């Protein structure tokens, strides 16, 4: 009987054909072109869109000097020593200014946000004042100019408050509204078509027969693309047949800026997919020195950018977040933001073989001393989608790493900001 000889594994550090994650990302960036067309949208519709031009302030914020406290407005020359009395001559409410004079020895009752009377420059908090009819007595240490927000303190006239390429958040919507701006120019949305490949795949509602499974990749892809504000075109499941695949790819490339497929790019499958894609466009089949997500097809079909992601559900998500998401952001005209990484101590041992960069699924948590720690989600198989569901971060382990002991610091990429 022939002896079992182990084949060179995916983890083989001598694998000369492998691309690093960085090399793959750089080649993807090289091939894409950001969208240039734009549209005007009402502010509420603009959430999640990318600004085509900077937002420039047409006014000062705040528009007038105003009180930061409920209290009494006075002129600082009347602030005499530790304790002094003043006569209240009026009241200023937010939106209802006091327009009269304020003479020496006088003050105005003032509410938070109310415009400062012309003769006043300082506000005493009401808690530091004793009131007797219209006479107030100030006590305690006070400072000239305190508790006043100056006109233009937050934003000056003509300030560029948000740059082109900025993706509009809820805070930005408030900021833009505070300038009285009701419409913004944003980049047009990307159109992304995707489908799953695999004879074993069935859609929700179908009955599973022996050897069949439900297609989950179309749902994770749909969710991840929606979070990116892309216009999605779900083309369903396509069987592993050359003619059907070719037709689906041609249709997708004709209708979308980006085409994403899952499955059918691993070693055995890739041969006929490769041959077929060669007829349609310029597509490279990469082996990336990463886990999960080693096989990846990338290139162009017609004018559309093409990503052939691996079939395993976790590989789809990892390759999407590491390659597709940054590429789509760049294509959508969004400015580059390096993803935030953290250094955190792992409280569990992490198993790993050298050779590939790994994106293990982790859980960041606070231990009993209130310190941030991380542990893995357990089994790291690329088919275990639940590992993504329970995780709140990736634990990044570089190619040379040969396992990590508990108590060691590791690099973590929190999902917050990613998803
Ligand atoms: P493949 O890359 O096509 O060889 O697929 C690798 C593994 O992922 C196989 O176990 C497939 O059954 C599974 N797989 C492929 N596509 C999907 C999908 N859309 N949903 C769930 N599992 C899938
Ligand atoms: Mg398949």
Verbal overview:
- The protein is α/β, with parallel strands linked by helices and 419 residues long.
- It folds into four domains: 21-36 and 188-331, Molybdenum Cofactor Biosythetic Enzyme, Chain A (3-Layer(aba) Sandwich); 38-61 and 153-187, Molybdopterin biosynthesis moea protein, domain 2; 66-149, Molybdopterin biosynthesis moea protein, domain 3 (Molybdopterin biosynthesis moeA protein, domain 3); 342-417, MoeA, C-terminal, domain IV (Beta-clip, Beta Barrel).
- It has helices spanning 21-31, 170-178, 217-227, 242-255, 267-280, 313-331, 386-390, and strands at 38-42, 55-56, 66-67, 71-74, 83-92, 106-110, 122-125, 129-132, 135-139, 148-149, 160-162, 183-187, 191-197, 201-202, 213-214, 231-238, 258-262, 281-287, 290-291, 295-301, 304-309, 342-346, 357-366, 372-376, 393-397, 409-414.
- The chain has a six-stranded mixed beta sheet, with no helix packed on it.
- The longest helix is centred in the C-terminal third of the chain and has 19 residues, at 313-331.
């Amino acid at each position: 009987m022939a002896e079992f000889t182990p084949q060179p594994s995916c983890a083989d550090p001598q694998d000369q054909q492998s691309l690093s994650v960085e090399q793959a990302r750089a080649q993807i960036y090289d091939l894409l072109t950001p969208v240039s067309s734009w549209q005007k949208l009402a502010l509420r519709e603009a959430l999640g869109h990318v600004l085509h031009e900077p937002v420039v302030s047409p006014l000062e914020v705040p528009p007038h000097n105003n009180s930061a406290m409920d209290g009494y407005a006075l002129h600082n020359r009347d602030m005499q020593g530790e304790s002094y009395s003043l006569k209240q001559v009026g009241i200023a409410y937010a939106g209802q200014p006091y327009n009269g004079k304020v003479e020496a020895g006088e003050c105005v009752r003032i509410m938070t946000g109310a415009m400062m009377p012309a003769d006043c420059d300082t506000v005493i908090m009401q808690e530091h004042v004793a009131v007797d009819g219209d006479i107030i007595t100030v006590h305690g240490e006070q400072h000239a100019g305190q508790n006043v927000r100056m006109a233009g303190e937050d934003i000056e006239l003509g300030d560029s408050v948000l740059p082109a390429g900025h993706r509009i958040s809820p805070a930005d919507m408030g900021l833009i509204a505070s300038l009285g701006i009701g419409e913004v120019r944003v980049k047009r949305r990307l159109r992304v078509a995707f489908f799953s490949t695999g004879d074993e795949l069935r859609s929700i509602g179908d009955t599973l027969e022996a050897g069949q499974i439900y297609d989950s990749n179309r749902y994770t892809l749909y969710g991840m693309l929606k979070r990116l504000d892309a216009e999605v075109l779900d083309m369903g499941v396509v069987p592993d047949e050359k003619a059907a695949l070719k037709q689906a790819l041609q249709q997708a490339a004709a209708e979308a800026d980006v085409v994403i497929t899952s499955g059918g790019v691993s070693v055995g499958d890739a041969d006929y997919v490769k041959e077929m894609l060669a007829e349609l466009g310029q597509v490279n089949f990469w082996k990336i020195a990463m886990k999960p997500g080693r096989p990846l097809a990338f290139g162009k079909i017609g004018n559309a950018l093409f990503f052939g992601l691996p079939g395993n559900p976790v590989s789809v998500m990892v390759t999407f977040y590491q390659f597709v998401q940054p590429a789509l952001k760049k294509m959508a005209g969004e400015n580059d933001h390096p993803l935030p990484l953290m250094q955190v101590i792992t409280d569990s041992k992490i198993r790993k073989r050298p050779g590939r960069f790994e994106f293990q699924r982790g859980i960041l948590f606070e231990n009993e001393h209130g310190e941030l720690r991380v542990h893995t989600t357990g089994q790291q198989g690329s088919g275990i989608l639940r590992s993504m569901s329970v995780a709140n971060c990736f634990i990044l382990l570089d190619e040379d790493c040969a396992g990590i002991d508990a108590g060691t610091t590791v690099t973590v990429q929190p999902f917050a900001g990613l998803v």
